Amino acid sequence: MAAWGGVLKKMANEGGGGGGGGGAVSGGSESGAADDGGSNHDSGKSSTSNSEYCGWVYHLGVNSIGHEYCHLRYLCIRGNHVEMYKRDPHENPGIKPIRWGVVGHTLMVEDLGRRKVNNGDLYVLRFYNRLDERRKGEIACASAGEARKWMEAFDQAKERVEYELSKGGSMRSKLNMENEINLEGHRHRVRRYAHDLKGLIKIGQGPEMLLRRSSSLDGSDRADIFFEADGGDAIEAHEWKCVRTINGVRIFEDIASSESDNGILVKAVGVVDACADTVFDVVLSLDRHQRYEWDTLTGDLELVDSVNGHYDVVYGTFDPNHLTWWQSKRDFVFSRQWFRGQDGTYTILQFPVEHKKRPPKSGYRRTKINTSTWEIRNLNTSSSSNVARCLVTQMLEINTKGWFKWKKDYSPKFEKTIPYALLSQVAGLKEYVGANPALASESPTTVVHSKTSSDVSASNGGLDDAEAPDEFYDAIAGDSSSEDDDSDDDSEEVNKKRKIKLKNVSWAIASLALKPTSAPDSNKELNPDVTPINLEPSQFHGSMQRGRDETDTNCWTSPSGTGFMIRGKTYLKDSTKVKGGEPLLKLVAVDWFNVENCVDNIALHPKCLVQSEAGKKIPFILVINLQVPARPNYSLVLYYAADRPVNKNSLLGKFVEGTDMFRDSRFKLIPSIVEGYWMVKRAVGTKACLLGKAVTCKYLRQDNFLEIDVDIGSSSVARSVIGLVLGYVTSIVVDLAILIEAKEDAELPEYILGTVRLNRIRPDSAVPLEN
């Protein structure tokens, strides 16, 4: 607390500090109009899509003399325009922004996780242009929840750009005219609000609340705007059975794992009356006074090493007298790796490790904490409820002998073991949050400004006096002097929630009983007037062999889509998902290359299948180049073939011929670890991921193919997950489904473009890509 007070005091008193360490706002291009497919549909949007987002953030950078700074700034997103102020412009009318620009479709926002700044922990977001990474900058938030909200706000701004471009007409001309405006230096005129802005959504509660490390964000309010069903998008093989209910927390065992000799998977599941952001902060906190109130085992923790914003190592001790029959004191070291999925779920992976900074301690007996995971997911609540709720799951692997004895005889000895103490953490967390109303009642602060022009049609939308065609990167401001703004925001708080249809708790079980959706209508997606060609597998060859049966290893096959859940015909009305059908495109070959550096445009390589005689005869080929960061780097190249040309008026045709912005908003992948270590399964998950919003994707459309280069290394979270997967890749079977996300009624139901199963791949089998 004192440290954060020092941060604010320092920021209030420091002067100077402009310079170029963080990059400056530079001109952004809005070239290319979105395809008529219209990636955003009005009926699928919340009222917040025409709102202004604003709140206090920390602006991080390096000044002209090389000193790092951390300034408190007020950030506003109005439509696709972004402005940064020294003070709240709503309380200081007429104040000029110190930095402004527009959000372009090439803007990428990366979650860098937690970083220590001036003796306090902040959650850092990095901005960069995927076509020019020299244009970049960073902001930071006091909590993971606020960082999530800002990522969603920028994502909303990008979707707005796509929607406006797709309308064409005057709006398209207006956006093109902005490219010609010269905006060197600061402009001293403040733009008026957009005509169709309907409300002000404040993120956070101001500087004082930032310093107190508390957030007023409600994770359930907007989680369903971008992220749909609560369940996973791939069908898992776990069979969970509830064996105990203790203090309102259910204890499950995985019956499927009970036959394994390696141990049995168990989990504790409870509903906590707080949003996922808040619970995540509590679980990750090292504050011993707070942990003492809910954690009987790992209450005494200290940071040993911070590897990056999503990974650290902690050391802990505990006195076994109150927990076990052991006589000596115990200590332990474990790593924590965390990330937030696109569905808003937080995952924390905990592994026992050794660290040179914490060798065995005299008087303590070193013990290993069970490998475990936390999953924290927001639950949708009714519009009449003001209380956020989340589902907290802790899963761990334990010795089967002790578990079965406890389950059968309810042995009191098990209740004095480390696994039981871990399973009890969920119950402790539930009680702790329930006893602290400030945590349980957090909700977003929404201030709605009524406007007589708020009903102006979208076609007349946009910003008046739009004078800043710069693509926005939170770069170094022109000056860094700052005045302390201590005024409170006394505006009326209105919790404006749109109606949410309650989902059946048994949704996942019911979905499994649904019949698979029929195969996609190939005549709709592919040209029905052309005779299909015969895609004979023997004509196509890749460096990775095709599997002959389930016993083959280091190979690929193409499974059906029945293992994946996709959006059904009525999805926009009831969020119903159905099993996938047969893929539209046929996987004809897979290449597995090792490369010194990531290689783009691999379809143009003379040795590539696309350039072969057989490849040139294929009407259309979708080439997916998954660039895997490692030592060496790898490229997994998937070749999906169509037996007829693509129908240009279909969804696939609009994707193939559309803009990169449209492709980024629609290109979706669903992962599923079919066989493998359970921790890898939890890390990868089963939720669909819009790759264009998670990592950098580049597109090459030529001749009879479209190539998508997926740079997995462009995201620190993706690099971390893929690093874990590579450690177990020789023992796992992974399925991937590729599809185009459907956002309009006419595009539903979804269909699967292609699938691939990778069976226990050996990294050393990758072949060099010859020049």
TrEMBL record:
Residues 464-473, 481-492 have a biased composition (Acidic residues). Residues 240-418 form the START domain. Residues 442-460 have a biased composition (Polar residues). PROSITE patterns: START. CDD domains: START. InterPro entries: EDR2-like, EDR2_C, START-like_dom_sf, START_lipid-bd_dom. Gene3D superfamilies: 3.30.530.20. Residues 14-30 have a biased composition (Gly residues). Residues 14-48, 441-496 are annotated as: Disordered. PANTHER family: ENHANCED DISEASE RESISTANCE PROTEIN (DUF1336), ENHANCED DISEASE RESISTANCE-RELATED. This is START domain-containing protein.
